[in-house]
Amino acid sequence: MSNSDSSGGGAAAAAAAAGQRRAPRPRPPSALRTLLNLPYFAAVVFLMYWSMPFCAALGYIPPWQLWGARSDIFYWCKFFVDAFRIDARVIPRPIEGQQQGQPKAGAAANPAAGAPLHRPPGRPVIYLANHRSWADFFLDAYLTAGRAQMLSRMAVLYAFPWFMLPITTARGCVVFKRGAIADKDRFNAWLDSKIAASPAPGLVVYPEGHRSSAAHSLPLKRGMLHYAYGRKVPVQVVMSAGKERVLSERRRRAAWGGIVATAYAAPVDPKDFDTSDGFMAAVQKSWDAAWEVAAPYALPENRAALEALPKNPVGPEMFVWPPHLQAAQTAFSLASTVAMLATLWAWSRAALWLTSASVLVPLRPLLAALALVWVMASFVACRDDGSAEDGSKAAAVVRERKDA
């Protein structure tokens, strides 16, 4: 069967699936939906903040394992993927002759067409990812098989110390102070030492510089591209659609059961270019192409094509960690568990104190029941069914660009 026949058959199948699929449920008004979403959003942020105790208790990161190969970064991320029931899919490469900006409805028939994650043995890779929300911290590390450290601002360490401290200590994250770098050679040498000190050979970088839920890419910053060219480190674009549907801190929204579709572009190796300008132009072209391929899957009307994509087969890359890092991970797991239990105890005491007024004591059972109903309703309402209300505000702009 030709590519065009496969694409046409896939489009017909997607259209049939769209007709058979249950229509999205009606959405409450925006203000009411925000109020309804708050308990689940708070639960997601709480789980991110205290993820280490849960990972240790559920065996994702076994604190008792002090020897042998392990993949703490991947399984820390897999905990979130499982907890939020995220369905990871892979976007195949565009079919020849297919227009940009059109979802590949027939992609499921040809899963081998997707570019795999670049994993050259014994060689580092810089993965360039789009920066959409806080969910990037665990999704992009998961989508790169736990084989890469995340390059993150120091502010994230201050905001989420109980998972950033152990991740950084275990050489899973490199934190730096944001701002102008006075001595780039010194910074690059420092980054060399951080990469060399970690068993994970890769690095996840957000070249746009900061989070954005816009329908267009921000201009790529070239600092890390200069670093990649100077060190002859290959670069691969890892572009995902749907990350802000999992968690959007700016809109105070979160959802479970969503689909995250990822396009793995072909790697760009600086060894193939005589000049840095040629290398950066190739990276920009790869980035733009991956953006155009992934963006349409954020549109609610393309839900059937999204559901037709093949499952993402990404799996963990195992490393043997030095004993002192494994011991540090165990210590942080125990310390964070104690800190979480102490925090929950303090919150419970504060709740009792706030309701200790004589007029409120008889109402405690009623208040507790109302709070429980609110939380349960929030968890039910926050299932991602692909409706426009769950999507980012960028979807309308993507649609306008596609129709133009």
Entry keywords:
404 residues, alpha/beta, two-stranded antiparallel sheet, 15 helices, globular, disordered N terminus
Q: Structural class, from helix and strand content? A: alpha/beta
Number of β-strand runs:
11
Share of β-strand residues: 5-15%
User: Strands of the biggest beta sheet: in what spatial order?
Assistant: 2-10-7-3-6-4-5
Radius of gyration: 23 Å
Low-confidence stretches: 1-24, 95-102, 104-114, 390-402
Q: Overall pLDDT, averaged?
A: 80
Element string (H = helix, E = strand): HHHEHEEHEHHEHEHEHEEEHHEHHH
**Percent in helix:** 40-55%
| Largest sheet report | 7 strands, mixed
Number of helical elements? 15
| Large-scale geometry | globular
- Number of domain units: 1
| Separation, N- and C-terminal Cα atoms | 32 Å
Summarize the structure.
With 404 residues, the chain is an alpha/beta fold.
Q: Can you walk through the features of this model?
A:
Residues 1-24, 95-102, 104-114 and 390-402 have low confidence and may be disordered. This protein has one domain (27-339, 377-403). It contains 15 helices and 11 strands. Helix 4 packs across helix 5 (136-143) and helix 7 packs antiparallel against helix 13 (323-354). The chain has helices at 3-20, 30-49, 51-57, 72-83, 136-143, 154-159, 161-169, 184-197, 223-231, 243-246, 276-294, 303-307, 323-354, 364-381, 394-403; strands at 69-70, 87-90, 126-129, 148-153, 173-176, 202-205, 235-241, 247-248, 253-254, 259-264, 319-320. It is globular and about 80 Å long. Strand 8 (247-248) and strand 9 (253-254) form a beta hairpin. It has 404 residues and is of the alpha/beta class. It is 47% helix and 11% strand.
